[in-house]
Amino acid sequence: MHTIQYMLLGCRLHLVGQGVEDGDNSTITELKQFTLNLEDHVSLVGDRPHLEALVETLLPYARHIVSAQARECKSANGKVSITPWHRGHRLRLRNENGSTRNDVQLDDGELANMVRCLDAVIHDPRFQLDITAPPMQGLRERELLNRLPLRRRLAAPLGGLVLTMALMGLGFLIPVPERVRVTDSEDRQEDTTAVETIEEQVIPVEVEPETETPSP
User: Fold this and answer.
1) How many CA atoms lie within 13 A of 95 on its CB side?
2) How is residue 67 annotated by DSSP?
3) Each residue of 16-29: pLDDT tens digit?
């Protein structure tokens, strides 16, 4: 049996399996068991399907944490799930028959150490198992909108509304010039002038006198 260990501050991952001895390095080609210890108070034990489920679940979850869009992630085989919980994260491992095996509360530091250990495993040439990180996927449109704080999302429409109200209020404050009032005498004078103008334009028509026709 060959072993590979990955040690970080507060996190230790121990892999046991069969492989090939190559000098001082041991190459694992078949994983039998892994043990993950966190701060000497949490110990997670599993086999290859559990390790694959951890890689499939924790790495995408960490990417969403970095994007400030934390949401629950589950593995396809249903063995591992992680979800935001209070101010930390709840990691749940299930055994073969589907019952709960471990329910672990993690803080940000413990989650970061687990992700670093798993990332080191899948990029280690000594670990000759086809376990790769899931492809990176962009955030959905709703998640991109939620990245902006509510204050910034409402700033543009509220600013436009305030500006419109200010312009309307300013329009009510500016005095409108009074219309010129015409008195009754001036109105009658204008009517008389108009009548005289019409009379001047009348052209008299001359009418020829009728001539008497002599009787026979």
Assistant:
1) 6
2) T
3) 998 887 666 778 88
pTM of the predicted structure, to 2 decimals: 0.61
Helix (H) or strand (E) holding 38: strand 25-38
User: How is residue 18 written in tokens?
Assistant: 């069969």
CATH of 2-132 among 2.40.128.30, 3.30.230.70, 2.30.31.10, 1.10.600.10: 2.30.31.10
State how beta strands 11-22 and 25-38 pair: antiparallel
- The length of the chain, given as a count of residues: 216
CA distance linking residue 32 with residue 153, whole number of Å? 51
Contact 44, 35 (CB under 8 A): yes
160 pLDDT above the threshold of 70: yes
Q: What angle do CA 41, 45, 49 make, to 5 degrees?
A: 145
Structure tokens that stand for 28 in this block: 């694992």
* Residues 15/31, Cβ–Cβ less than 8 Å: yes
Domain ranges of the chain: 2-132
